[in-house]
Amino acid sequence: MLSYCNGDCSVEQLGKYRAQRYRGIEATNPNFFFDAGSLSLYGAASFLYELFPSSNYTPDETAIASFFGVQMNCVEWEYIGERAPSGWKNRIEPYDLQLTGAQIGKTYQVEPVSTYVQLD
After folding, report:
1. For residue 100, is it within any domain?
2. Cα–Cα distance between 95 and 24 in angstroms, integer?
3. Does 10 map to a domain?
């Protein structure tokens, strides 16, 4: 994800990344199923820019890599253990379900994909 976004973990880049992942999995997995509940993945992506921003409240690769516990070793990402980045500050306002829902819509609308509805 960090390589795809090239250090820009904004709504726009994460929306494009989620759509790219969707297309890649759909093309290789004949059992792939993406329903409306799967849109929660877009909410999880919003944590990167809403909950894990750097000290100036913007998402950057260093802060996000720290939370995921990875670092680039010149060739590939390697696991080094999750931790809060130095200088990290918590959100000023709580991040609630209503805000998460708004970000799901915002991120999904960058590059919408099809959802399947299962009928009983």
Report:
1. yes
2. 30
3. yes
Number of domains in the chain: 1
Q: Write b or e for each residue in 89-116: b if 16 or more Cβ atoms lie within 10 A of its Cβ, otherwise e.
A: eeeeeeeeeeebeebbeebbebeeeeee
Structure tokens at 70: 């990875």
- Nearest to residue 33, comparing CAs of 103, 114, 119? 114
Handedness of CA 117, 96, 3, 59 (dihedral sign): positive
What does pTM read for this prediction?
Answer: 0.74
Domain span at residue 73 reads 2-108
Tens-digit pLDDT profile for residues 1-53? 877 888 778 889 989 999 999 999 989 998 888 888 888 888 888 887 788 76
Separation of alpha carbons 79 and 55, rounded Å: 23
Helix/strand/coil for 51: coil
pLDDT score recorded for residue 60: 76
